[in-house]
Write a structure and sequence with these properties.
Number of strands: 15
Strand order of the largest sheet: 1-3-2-8-10-9-14-15-13-11-12
Structural class: alpha/beta
Largest sheet: 11 strands, mixed
Strand content: 5-15%
Length: 467
């Protein structure tokens, strides 16, 4: 297994969103050609990866032809008009079923409504190619379900793509679409981004509107999954537009993410915490991230070692996660419990036992971790950690085989704390293990510092690529 080669930009399926738009503007490529290339890549590669649960070539090509006409007439609709995109099968999409990885969801619908994410994508003129796989109701950090089977890592198909946005990560990494949108309630964007070697961004809670409201409540975020930080910033400018259906959504930003991404970040202070004070990372993962941090420090970030000062909030996370799952599943049809993923059934049963007092106590723990991080960020602009303490393990398992672990949060301790705090967090590739498996570096900022996190991420991406 070798480290993946850098994509050749002469292949439309390997181009970034920014490269595609530049080619459209120059007249050297059309949205139809780009969409056809992505559809051909799906046909050629998805049999091994299983990233898509729905592909609609006819509708995608109609959208691509409409975009081509707009480019030819000089009346482009949006920032990424004509760029192919996939969407995780958690977001409602008009006329497409949203089955959430569950056998209990009727595919016949009806499906009359677009989620805010789907609506913003359509308004921008992007080409919606299809929907990507998810574990049932996005409940775990790998991507398999009774409905769609196992999603595999395109870097090594014997390994997991991670989850729960594993289909989106695998699609982007395999050249089956330059960008996708995932959800993140405990690391579900950042974990598969790390495992598949792409960029994944969880913005501040409420920055991207959600509808219907997630049963996971304040843990739930949506965000871009891309090949570059620049593409993620452009998608943020599209996805973060307000939507009246989300009462928790934030006011529009006074600046653009793509504009702020160009800001000077040398001199920014960052803390590097390889363990958060309670994690034992794989030695190779720790060494790769430490080497990346050293390069960033040498390039102008002011990085010093420091732990943020909170203890592992796993117990509180488990309470909030299980209660949310149980609330959602209670609305499923009779007989759904018997059809559900066995691991999800256990979470469902635990969630049904959670009392209101226990739920509020868990929210109090989340608030205290947030207060601790708020204080921490008065001393440091950013916190840097590994994204996941291990590389991708064998596909088809919820935990690494032979590890003795009982649940996925045991191997995701760098991600779920920052769902509790609702902070922006970005995963970018940091390097590859001796087996050729990607490792991610996580950049975390204070709430509402999404623009800073993306700007530093772009700087870090360039520094690490130049090594």
């Amino acid at each position: 297994m070798n480290q993946p080669e850098t994509p050749q930009t002469t292949d439309p399926a390997a181009m970034t969103a920014v490269e595609l738009v530049s080619a459209y503007a120059a007249g050297t490529l059309s949205p139809v050609e780009a969409t056809e290339a992505v559809l051909e890549a799906i046909t050629a590669r998805d049999g091994d990866v299983n990233a898509y649960c729905l592909v609609d070539p006819d509708r995608a090509l109609v959208q691509a032809k409409d975009s081509e006409a707009r480019w030819q007439s000089g009346h482009v609709r949006g920032l990424l008009d004509g760029v192919p995109i996939s969407i995780k099968d958690i977001f409602l999409t008009e006329d497409w079923p949203t089955r959430r990885g569950s056998l209990s969801v009727d595919p016949d619908g009806p499906w009359p409504v677009d989620s805010p994410v789907a609506a913003r994508v359509r308004e921008d003129g992007m080409v919606m190619v299809g929907k990507t796989t998810t574990p049932e109701i996005a409940w775990k950090a790998v991507t398999d379900s009774p409905l769609t089977g196992i999603t595999r890592n395109p870097v090594d198909p014997t390994r997991t793509a991670g989850g729960s946005s594993g289909g989106s990560a695998a699609a982007v990494a395999a050249g089956m679409g330059p960008v996708s949108v995932g959800t993140d309630g405990g690391g579900s964007i950042r974990i598969p981004a790390s495992f598949c070697g792409i960029v994944g961004f969880k913005p501040t809670h409420g920055r991207i509107p959600l509808y219907p409201a997630s049963p996971f409540g304040p843990l739930a975020h949506a965000g871009p999954m891309t090949r570059t930080v620049e593409d993620a910033a452009l998608l943020m400018d599209i996805l973060s537009l307000p939507d009246p259906r989300d009462p928790t959504s934030l006011a529009p930003t006074p600046t653009t993410f793509r504009g702020e991404m160009q800001r000077e970040v040398r001199g920014i202070t960052a803390a590097y915490s390889p363990t958060l004070g309670f994690v034992q990372p794989d030695p190779e993962v720790e060494a790769l991230v430490a080497a990346a941090v050293e390069a960033l420090d040498a390039a102008g970030l002011r990085i010093s070692a420091a732990d943020p000062g909170f203890t592992d909030p796993r117990e509180a996370f488990d309470v909030l996660w299980a209660a949310g799952a149980a609330a959602m599943l209670a609305a499923f049809p009779s007989g759904s419990r018997e059809k559900a993923d066995p691991g999800l059934r256990r979470v469902w049963e635990y969630g049904e036992t959670v009392s209101a007092t226990e739920y509020l106590d868990a929210r109090a723990v989340a608030a205290q971790v947030g207060i601790t991080m708020g204080t921490f960020h008065t001393a440091y602009d950013l916190l840097i950690t590994p994204t996941v303490p291990i590389p991708a393990f064998a596909a088809g398992y919820d935990v690494p085989p032979g590890s003795g672990m009982s649940g996925w949060p045991e191997w995701t301790p760098y991600t779920y704390p920052f769902n509790l705090t609702q902070q922006p967090a970005l995963s970018i590739p940091a390097g590859y293990t001796s087996e050729g498996l990607p490792v991610g570096l996580q950049i975390i900022g204070p709430r509402h510092s999404d623009d800073l996190v993306l700007a530093v991420g772009r700087f870090a991406e360039a520094v690490l690529a130049a090594r």
